[in-house]
Amino acid sequence: MSRFVRASKYRHVFGQQGKKEYGYDNVKVTNSAWDTNIISASTRYISLNWNASGGGASRTSSPSARSHTGPVLDTDWSPFNDTVVASAGEDGKTLIWKVDDAAFAGWGQDGWEPQDFDPVARIDVSPRRVGHVLFHPTANNVLATSTGDHVVKLWDLAQPENARGVLGGHGDAIQSLAWNPTGTILATTCRDRKIRLFDPRAGPDPVRVGEGHGGIKASIALADRIATTGFSKMSDRQAAIWETGSLSNVKTITIDQTSGVLMPFWTDNNILFLAGKGDGNIRYYEYENDNLFPLAEYKSSEPQRGMCFLPRRGLSVSDCEIARAYKVAASSIEAIAFIVPRKSDSFQSDIYPPAPSAEPALSAAEFFSGKTAPPKLVSLEDGSITTGSAPLSIPTTPAPAASSAPTKTTSAPPPAAAPAPVVSIREEPPAPTSEPEPRIPTRSQTVPGTDDGTVAALKEENARLTAELRDAREKIRNLELQVETVRANARKAAALLDS
C-alpha cells in the first residue's frame, strides 16, 4: 500500500444535517411511480411533487400550484429567475409558474393563510405524459421536455404555441436528460439501454448513440464528461464516466447490489454525488484525470425518496459550504450541508471556482438562430461576472441507427447573507496545511550591509530549516495515512455491527 495520500482540497469534506427549523415536516410526497428526483430548488424556493389524492386538493402550509389534472412528474427552476418554475404532468401538459414574493408576506405567523398560484403559461406538449422538464443552462426561456411518445421537445417560452424542435430516435421511454454546461449538447438515457447525444439545432436525430449500462434504469449528469448511473447485467449498481465526443467508456465503478436507483449530481467543482433511492447515505467522489476518487459518505438512518442540490451561487461561503442537498424523506425535507473544514474565516478561493450566474448568455431567439456563447460565471467572493470556457461542440454527422397532483412551492426564510435554510456547522478538524518552502537568498538578493560570511550562515540555516520541514511533512503524511486507516477500520466495524 502506498504511504502517500492523494492530495485533494476536498478530501476532508463532510456532510452535516441542518437544524430542524431549516427543514420541512408533514409534507405529502407524491405517490407516482414515475422515476424523477421529486424535488427541485432555486436559491430562494423549493418545489415538491405533492400528493393531493384521497379527498381532493388538501390545504397546505404554503401556496400551492394546482392546475394539473394528473400527477406532477417533474419540476425545474429557471437558472436565471429564482421565482420561475416549470412543471411536467401526467396530463401531457407543462405549466410555467411565477412565484409572487408578496404571497409569502407574513408566512409562518399566526392567522396567515396561503393563497394558491395560477400558471402564467400552459403548454400542450403531448397527448401522453410529460416525464421531464429541464431549462437551458445559458439561454433564457428555453425549455426541454420529454414525452410519453419517446421524443424531446424544445420550447421558446415567449412563443409556447409550437415546439421549436423535436428530437427523436428513442426506442423506448426516456429516463433522463441533461444539458452540458454550455447548452450545445443535450444527452438522454432510455430504457433501450442507450445513451444519445443531440445537437438540438442540427436536426432531430442524435449525433451520437452509444451503449449504456446493462440494466434498463439509468440517470445522467453532464459536464466535460458524461456521468451516468445504472445497473449491470448482474444487477450491480454502477457509476460510469463517458467521453463526450465518441461516447466511449472512460471509467466504470461498481457501487453495490442494492436495487434503488442512484441519482447522480455533478457539481462544477468536479464532485459527483450519488444518492440512492431507498438509501440513507450519499456517496461522493472527486473526478480527476478520468478517475473517480471516493471522498467520504454521508450516512443517515432515514431513507431518501428524492433529492436536489442548491445552485452553487446560493451557498454560504463563510462556512466553507461547497454543496447543499435537500433530501426528501417519507414526510419531511432535510437540508444537508457539505463543508470543507478550514480554520480561516476568509474566502477560500481554492474550493470556490466561479459558479454559473443568474445572467443568461443568450436569448431564446439567439439560441434557436444558431448562436453559441460560453456561460456567464459569478465570483462567489465579490459577485463579479466573468465568461466561461468556449462551448463544446461535436461533429453533427447523424449516428446509426395523481388525481390533481399539484406542485408545491415552499419558501425558505431569507437570511442576510445566504439563502435559507442555512446550515452552518464546522465540527471536523481542519485538514493539515503545508507551509511554503523557505526562500534561500542568492547573492543578488543579499541584504545590504552583510558580508559573504553572513550570507553563507544564512544559507546553512535555510538548508537546516528545509530539512526539518521535509521531515515534518513526512510525519504529516504518515499521520494522514494512519487517520485513513482508522477511518477504514471504523467503517468496517460499523458494517459488521449493522450486519
What does this structure look like?
Keywords: Coiled coil, Repeat, WD repeat. Belongs to the WD repeat coronin family. The protein is mainly beta and 499 residues long. It has two domains: 357 residues, YVTN repeat-like/Quinoprotein amine dehydrogenase (Methylamine Dehydrogenase, Chain H), CATH 2.130.10.10; 56 residues. It has two helices and 32 strands. The strands form eight sheets. Strands 1, 2, 26, 27 and 28 form a five-stranded antiparallel beta sheet that branches. A four-stranded antiparallel beta sheet has the order 3-4-32-5, with no helix packed on it. Strands 6-7-8-9 form a four-stranded antiparallel beta sheet, with no helix packed on it. The two termini are 28 Å apart.
Pick out its properties:
WD repeat, WD40_rpt, coiled coil, single chain, 4-stranded antiparallel sheet, DUF1899, globular, 5-stranded antiparallel sheet, 2 domains, Methylamine Dehydrogenase, Chain H, mainly beta, 499 residues, 32 strands
Topology of helices and strands:
Elements: E1 14-17, E2 24-25, E3 39-41, E4 45-49, E5 64-65, E6 72-77, E7 84-89, E8 93-98, E9 121-124, E10 130-135, E11 142-147, E12 152-156, E13 165-167, E14 174-179, E15 186-190, E16 194-198, E17 208-211, E18 218-222, E19 225-231, E20 237-243, E21 249-256, E22 262-267, E23 271-276, E24 282-288, E25 291-298, E26 306-309, E27 321-328, E28 332-339, E29 355-356, H1 364-368, E30 376-378, E31 385-387, E32 407-411, H2 452-498
Antiparallel strand pairs: 1-28, 2-28, 3-4, 4-32, 5-32, 6-7, 7-8, 8-9, 10-11, 11-12, 12-13, 14-15, 15-16, 16-17, 18-19, 19-20, 20-21, 22-23, 23-24, 24-25, 26-27, 27-28, 29-30, 30-31
Pfam families: DUF1899 (PF08953), WD40 (PF00400), WD40_4 (PF16300)
Protein name: Coronin
Domain DUF1899: 3-61
